[in-house]
Write a structure and sequence with these properties.
Length: 462
């Protein structure tokens, strides 16, 4: 969705389909075979969380230095990241303070900068936000050490998505596989439902779950970003990667027939109020964390049998009694077209106040050391190719990480995250609001397309 984003390289459709098929196929085979729980690990890595992580990156002594790091992360996600920052403090002597930010983070940072109190580093969840930070003169380029770590540890695609005009600004510290559907294993067993591989099979599975007395889907519609992720998976699989890239850069309009086709497909689920927990009204009042927890509480009679979202769903499953791999299982987002989609997302560390300490933190976050600390805690995936798979605490997450890396450079980044923040990343506006309205009225496909195009044109500048 961004004509000015030069970091997403256009790749041949055939190349992506092969890589996506490999990644999705590997994911399908590995996830369905997982039966281990979250407490045990055959590699012994679960218990290694209390051990010191061997240092592979050289960091300077920073006694007396202070840093502020801003991110929108909350709950377990924030708690685990603070342990990574604590490791940095231990190695350098610096003092790091986590600053809770609000969405959209660009607006939050603007207020902090206007008040003369910018954080030293910000974790930005969108390439579009990185571009805006550079355009506003806020972001500072990565130094030689951080750039060296990136070159050693990241595929070219993950390096490029953190660049603006060929210069590195972002370290993609955290990645997401956003092409997953999680399900309550007991519900599926009781219903006699099976894991689908195609969209038509997903509809059949949904009906089977419904017939068993359980609502098929939980949707966190109060958070508009979850709805954009639904659309993107359908669009990528159905329209193909070339169209996906064009729409992502707004080189084709949202009134294009391919968008109509994707919305029509999406309405096959969103248009059946009995398929969504609480109906559209209930979904629009359900935030993402609750959409997960209500799928895995209530025994074999939860509010819903399935919930769509990325690998980070595990963090919220951890708030229930369900165990990943036994009570909570997962399958790849089914193929709508010829190939199952592989959509990625992520969060990048961007320096706002350039200093020796800020550059050292960016270097640390680009190293396998930081990612290994976080990986052991669960609910996290790293695009860092030199993080050993044994660092992940269970088979499910380990296989997700392997599938993410198997895609190499041939992945597609979350479309709305590539957009200007006003269109793809602001609550109550742009794509988030248009798709919330579509969830409320899935029959209004033409009206939804018109609204999406009007908002996109305004955000992209025509």
């Amino acid at each position: 969705m961004r004509s000015t984003i030069s970091t997403i390289r256009t790749r041949r459709a055939a190349s992506l389909r092969v890589a996506a098929a490999v990644a999705a196929g590997a994911l399908a085979l590995s996830l369905t075979a997982c039966g281990g729980d979250d407490d045990k690990d055959d590699s012994g890595s679960r218990g290694s969380g209390d051990k010191e992580t061997a240092a592979s990156v050289t960091l300077p002594k920073l006694d007396g230095e202070t840093l502020e790091v801003a991110a929108v992360w909350t709950g377990a996600e924030q708690k685990n990241f603070k342990q990574v920052l604590a490791e940095f403090e231990k190695r350098t002597g610096a003092k790091v303070t986590f600053v809770p930010a609000q969405d959209p983070i660009i607006n939050f940072l603007g207020s902090k900068i206007a008040g003369g109190q910018p954080p030293d580093v910000a974790m930005l969840p969108q390439p579009g936000a990185i571009k805006q930070a550079v355009d506003k003169g806020w972001a500072k380029p990565l130094g030689a050490e951080a750039t060296k770590e990136l070159a050693e540890n990241y595929s070219q695609g993950w390096q490029d998505i953190g660049k603006v005009d060929g210069k590195s600004y972002g370290v993609y510290y955290k990645a997401a596989n956003k092409s997953l559907i999680w399900y309550n294993a007991q519900v599926f067993e009781n219903a006699g439902a099976s894991e689908p591989k195609t969209w038509d099979e997903l509809l059949t599975t949904a009906q089977t779950v419904y017939d068993s007395g359980v609502t098929p889907f939980s949707v966190g519609g109060a958070d508009g970003w979850t709805l954009t992720d639904w659309f993107e998976n359908i669009y990528l699989s159905q329209a193909g990667p070339e169209k996906y890239d064009q729409l992502a850069k707004h080189e084709i309009k949202w009134t294009d027939p391919s968008v109509k086709e994707a919305l029509t497909t999406l309405a096959e689920i969103w248009g059946k109020k009995d398929y969504i927990a609480g109906g559209a009204k209930g979904a629009l009042q359900t935030e993402f964390p609750a959409s997960v927890t209500q799928t895995f509480t209530g025994g074999d009679q939860p509010k819903a049998g399935m919930v769509y979202e990325g690998d980070f769903v595990q963090v919220n499953i951890g708030e229930t009694k369900a165990k990943v791999g036994t009570d909570a299982k997962v399958f790849p987002f089914p193929a709508v077209g010829g190939t199952a989609p592989v959509v990625s997302g992520g969060d990048a560390a961007v320096i706002l106040e350039d200093s020796k300490a800020a550059q050292a933190l960016a270097t640390f976050l680009a190293s396998p050391d930081a990612a290994t600390v976080h990986a052991k805690l669960g609910g996290y995936l790293s695009p860092n190719k030199n993080v050993d798979a044994s660092a992940y605490p269970n088979d499910v997450q380990r296989k997700m990480a392997e599938a993410l890396l198997a895609a190499g450079d041939d992945f597609r980044f979350d479309m709305s995250d590539q957009a200007p923040q006003a269109f793809g990343g602001t609550p109550g506006k742009g794509e988030w609001k248009a798709l919330q309205d579509f969830l409320k009225n899935p029959k209004d496909i033409a009206g939804t397309q018109a609204k999406l195009e009007a908002d996109a044109a305004a955000a992209y500048g025509g």
